[in-house]
């Protein structure tokens, strides 16, 4: 479980993915709440007809607005470009807490103590938002898998691998054998590769976490918080003061291996044909 929670969460990195989640939660929430009337929500107020429809629909719209603020404004404010599974789950719980507080302030009867009434709001909000939120993430996951499958098919046909931006659009296609390493550069990645025996680099708006997840089963391996390296391009590994450094073919660049990846890379290096 600890290993799973420490894995990159790659499903809400792009604007398109965030919009899919927000739109799905909004539409699903409005339809679901008006058809199935969970928690006897239609009896909470003495209304009916179009007035009741708008009241019930407002729960879905309010939740969607808060999720939109969370994903676009708050994440930008705190410069949060991507999550791990653990941090995403905490973020989701934070969204639920805020949504339930807004529901309490807008629809609360204030006849009971704050904690008693807010607890009901929190419980209903969590149960109500969990299904559309989970389905929205599932849709994003399936789209991502479809795009990845398409990229794999393309790479098999052409021999090239496509490196996408944060929206899943392939911005650079290269032979794997020509890629040297990929470096994190703020909100971008810098892809270093060989072109006619010259080293070139291209900036693409994405994160190393996303690239690492996409190319899990290739020779591109994460070795440091700031680097992914093509293990086929390693010509020498050097240990200095218990730290491992990688020397790559065709370049004088030395790539450090962080402590978390030391053991894995020692095994990788020992398996490289001499």
UniProtKB/TrEMBL annotation:
Taxonomic superkingdom: Bacteria
InterPro entries linked: LytR-like (IPR046947), LytTR_DNA-bd_dom (IPR007492)
Keyword Transmembrane helix: yes
KW DNA-binding (keyword) present: yes
Pfam families: LytTR (PF04397)
Key words of the record: DNA-binding, Membrane, Transmembrane, Transmembrane helix
Entry's Gene Ontology molecular function annotations: DNA binding
Transmembrane segments: 20-41, 53-75, 87-110, 122-142
Ranges for domain HTH LytTR-type: 173-271
Classification via PANTHER family: STAGE 0 SPORULATION PROTEIN A HOMOLOG, TRANSCRIPTIONAL REGULATOR-RELATED
Protein name: LytTR family DNA-binding domain-containing protein
Organism: Flavivirga amylovorans
């Amino acid at each position: 479980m600890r290993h799973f929670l420490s894995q990159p969460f790659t499903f809400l990195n792009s604007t398109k993915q965030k919009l899919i989640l927000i739109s799905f939660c909004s539409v699903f929430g409005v339809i679901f709440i008006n058809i199935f009337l969970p928690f006897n929500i239609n009896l909470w107020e003495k209304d009916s007809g179009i007035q009741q429809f708008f009241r019930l629909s407002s729960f879905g719209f309010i939740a969607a607005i808060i999720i939109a603020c969370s994903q676009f404004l708050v994440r930008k404010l705190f410069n949060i470009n991507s999550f791990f599974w653990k941090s995403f789950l905490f973020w989701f719980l934070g969204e639920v807490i805020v949504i339930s507080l807004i529901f309490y302030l807008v629809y609360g009867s204030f006849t009971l103590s704050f904690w008693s009434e807010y607890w009901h709001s929190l419980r209903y909000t969590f149960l109500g938002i969990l299904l559309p939120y989970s389905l929205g993430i599932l849709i994003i996951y399936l789209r991502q898998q479809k795009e990845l499958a398409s990229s794999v098919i393309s790479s098999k046909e052409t021999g090239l691998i496509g490196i996408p931006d944060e929206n899943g659009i392939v911005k650079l296609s290269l032979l794997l054998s020509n890629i040297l390493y990929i470096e994190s550069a703020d909100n971008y990645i810098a892809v270093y590769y060989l072109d006619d025996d010259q080293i070139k680099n291209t900036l693409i708006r994405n994160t190393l976490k996303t690239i690492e997840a996409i190319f899990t089963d290739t020779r591109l391996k994460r070795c440091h918080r700031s680097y992914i390296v093509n293990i086929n391009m390693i010509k020498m590994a050097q240990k200095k003061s218990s730290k491992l450094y990688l020397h790559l073919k065709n370049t004088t660049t030395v790539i450090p291996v962080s402590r978390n990846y030391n053991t894995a890379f020692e095994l990788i290096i020992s398996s490289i044909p001499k």
